[in-house]
Automatic annotation (TrEMBL):
Organism the protein comes from: Bacillus inaquosorum
One Pfam short name: ABC_tran
Protein name, entry field: Urea ABC transporter ATP-binding subunit UrtE
One MF annotation (Gene Ontology) recorded for this entry: ATP hydrolysis activity
GO biological process, alphabetically ordered: L-amino acid transport
Family label: Belongs to the ABC transporter superfamily.
UniProt-listed InterPro entries: AAA+_ATPase, ABC_transporter-like_ATP-bd, ABC_transptr_urea_ATP-bd_UrtE, BCAA_Transport_ATP-bd_LivF, P-loop_NTPase
UniProt xrefs under NCBIfam families: urea_trans_UrtE
Length: 233
């Protein structure tokens, strides 16, 4: 599905990722963990194309995309939900969701909200005419994920989607992540600061320190014990 190989990336002359490599299979949920400032968000921005890869390769569906624009990568099937949600606060929930069809070819845009969106996030059906900025943090997070799913992506990049929201919404997001992986064979890269959250929904774990992978393994207790020393302050 996607392979990141020896990628170096960062901001201007300050590199954050150094020779970074990881792989994600179709339908696999991979969590990327690490302390603040080690390169987790930089990784997602580099995969989607908001930051350039200074060196290395990003191969998606057997096509090298590291030199493609973010728009091209989105149209190829990579969706991105940034930290902070980044919804359109002045647009209605309905218009936010319909904007999610932008990556699709024009002939595939229906102008209709898929019913499965409301099956995953029922609260959005009740709020279609409300402005995005009027929603709570947890509701905005649901909207951001739903908007990304409107584009029928093959892989979705989620930057700390469970941060700062109530436990019931955290559980809902976990369930949705598991369902889209299982039923739609969609891959997920999940940036998380919580090892507990990662263990409950991921198949495989990576831990980053100083911009490079320092350990990885199946999402189980043995891997979690190894990771702890890289996550504690």
């Amino acid at each position: 599905m996607i392979a990141v190989s020896n990628v170096t990336s960062g901001y201007d002359q300050s590199m954050v990722l150094h020779n970074f490599s990881m792989e994600v299979r179709p339908g696999q949920i991979v969590a990327v963990l690490g302390r603040n400032g080690v390169g987790k968000s930089t990784l997602l921005k580099t995969i989607i194309g908001l930051l350039p890869a200074k060196q290395g390769d990003i191969c998606f569906n057997q096509t090298f995309v590291q030199n493609e624009k973010a728009e091209t990568r989105a149209k190829a099937g990579i969706a991105y939900v940034p930290q902070g949600r980044d919804i359109f606060s002045s647009l209605t929930v309905r218009d936010n969701l319909l904007f999610g069809e932008e990556p699709l070819p024009r002939k595939d845009r229906t102008g209709q909200i898929k019913e499965e969106i409301f099956q995953w996030f029922p609260v959005l059906k009740e709020m279609l005419d409300r402005k995005g900025g009027d929603l709570s943090g947890g509701q905005q997070q649901q909207l951001a994920i739903a908007r990304a799913l409107m584009g029928n992506p093959k892989i979705i990049l989620l930057d700390e989607p469970m941060e700062g929201i109530q436990p019931s919404i955290v559980e809902l997001i976990r369930q949705v992540i598991a369902e889209i992986s299982r039923k739609k064979d969609m891959s997920v890269i999940l940036v998380e600061h919580s090892l507990e959250n990662a263990l409950t929904c991921a198949d495989y774990l990576y831990v980053i320190d100083r911009g490079t992978v320092v350990d990885h393994g199946k999402a189980d207790e043995e891997t979690a014990r190894r990771f702890e020393r890289h996550l504690t302050v």
